[in-house]
Amino acid sequence: MTKAPLRIAVSGAAGQICYSLLFRIAAGDLFGADRPVALHLLDLPQAQNAVRGVVMELEDCAFPLLSDVAVTDDPNAAFRDVDAALLVGSRPRSKGMERRDLLSANAEIFKTQGAALDANAKREAKVLVVGNPANTNAFILAESAPNFPRDNIASMIRLDHNRAQGQLAAKAGVGVGEIEKLVVWGNHSPTMFADWTFATANGRPLNETISDEAWYRETLIPKVAQRGSAIIEARDASSAASAANAAIDHLRDWMLGSDGRWVSMGLSSIGAYGIPEGLYCGVPATCTAGSIERIEDLKIDEFQRRMIDRTVAELVEERDAVRALLA
Ligand SMILES: NC(=O)C1=CN([C@@H]2O[C@H](COP(=O)(O)OP(=O)(O)OC[C@H]3O[C@@H](n4cnc5c(N)ncnc54)[C@H](O)[C@@H]3O)[C@@H](O)[C@H]2O)C=CC1
Ligand SMILES: O=C([O-])CC(=O)C(=O)O
C-alpha cells in the first residue's frame, strides 16, 4: 500500500539553498524511496513568481514521490498540518559580514513565523532553523511559539559537523563514514568548537591516529569555523548545496533515526555542560525515529571547557540583544 505523504514546509523557496534542497527532498533523499512528500513552499510576496518557476521545474522532473506542491506567502498557510518545516528563508550575509550582523534583518522573520507555527502546526512537527544567525533565530522562534514543544525546534550546526568530518577523514586517511563521536559545540559562528576529543575512526581514537594537537587547535578548529566565509570569498555567495545537504542529513536523522551515531544539533539547553537553559546550542545527540537523546554525561577537560564557554558567552550576548524584540 502506498504510504501517506509527509507534508513539509520550506521557507525561502525561491532562494539558492532551496534550489538544491527542494529537488533532493522531492527525489526521496530525506525520507527514502518509498515515502511520498508534499511541499508547502513559503516565500515573500515579491518572490512568488520566482517560486512558480521553481515549481515548474519540479513538475518537469516528474518525481514519482512528489505528491503535491502548494505555494504561499502566508506562514499560517505554510505551517498548517505539516510534519516538518525547514526554515531557510532569510537574508544571507555577504563578504565582510559575520552571521550575527544578520540578526537585525532576520530576527523579525522568526518572531512572525513562531507565532504562525504556534497557531497552526501539529505539536509533533519537527522544525529545523537554517536561516542565520541560526541558533538565535531558533531561540526567537521558540520564544514566539510558547505552546509548541521547544524540543521540536532545532538549529542547524550539521554543516559544521559535516565540514569537520570531511577535514578529519582527509587528514587521517580514512573514509568519512568511519568517523564517529565527533561533536561541534555552540554557535554556528566563528566561535563554534569542532571537538575531536571523543572522535574515533574504526574504533580507534582519532587524536591518536592523527597525533597532531597543533594541527587540531591551529588548523582544524579555525578552518571549520571560517569555512562559511571562505566559501563566500570564493563564490561571492554563501554555501548552498552543502547547506541543503546538511539540512537533509539533520532532518533525516531526526525523523528516521541516527542508527546510534552521534550527530551535532542545535538544541534548547536543559542546563547540561553549564549551558544556560533555553539557549539553542550545538551539542551531541543520537536520534531514534522522531526523538532526540541528548548525550549529557561526557567528561569535559580544561581546553573543551574554555572553548564551550567562549561560544556560549556569544550565544548569551545574542540572546540578550534580542530581548527587546521579544518583549
Ligand atoms: N545554518 C547554516 O548552516 C546555514 C545557513 N545559511 C543561511 O540560510 C539563509 C538562506 O540562504 P540562501 O538560500 O543562500 O539565501 P537567498 O537570498 O538565496 O534566499 C533567501 C530566500 O528567503 C526568502 N525570504 C526572505 N524573507 C522571508 C520570509 N519572511 N519568509 C519567507 N521567505 C523569505 C527570500 O525572498 C529568498 O527567496 C541565509 O540566512 C543564510 O545565511 C546558509 C548556509 C548555511
Ligand atoms: O557563512 C554563511 O554565511 C553561510 C553559512 O552559514 C555557512 O556556510 O556556514
TrEMBL record:
GO molecular function, one term: L-malate dehydrogenase (NAD+) activity
Gene3D superfamilies reported for this sequence: Lactate dehydrogenase/glycoside hydrolase, family 4, C-terminal, NAD(P)-binding Rossmann-like Domain
CDD domains, sorted: MDH_chloroplast-like
Annotated positions binding substrate: 93, 99, 132, 163
Residues passing through the membrane, by range: none
The Lactate/malate dehydrogenase C-terminal domain, residue ranges: 158-321
Reactions the enzyme catalyzes: (S)-malate + NAD(+) = oxaloacetate + NADH + H(+)
InterPro entries in the cross-refs: L-lactate/malate_DH, Lactate/malate_DH_C, Lactate/malate_DH_N, Lactate_DH/Glyco_Ohase_4_C, Malate_DH_type2, NAD(P)-bd_dom_sf
This protein's UniProt keywords: NAD, Oxidoreductase, Tricarboxylic acid cycle
Keyword Oxidoreductase found: yes
EC assignment: 1.1.1.37
Residue ranges of domain Lactate/malate dehydrogenase N-terminal in the record: 7-152
One Pfam family per UniProt: Ldh_1_N
Enzyme class: oxidoreductase
Active site: 188
Annotated residues for binding of NAD(+): 12-18, 106, 113, 130-132
Its biological purpose: Catalyzes the reversible oxidation of malate to oxaloacetate.
Similarity remark: Belongs to the LDH/MDH superfamily. MDH type 2 family.
Protein name: Malate dehydrogenase
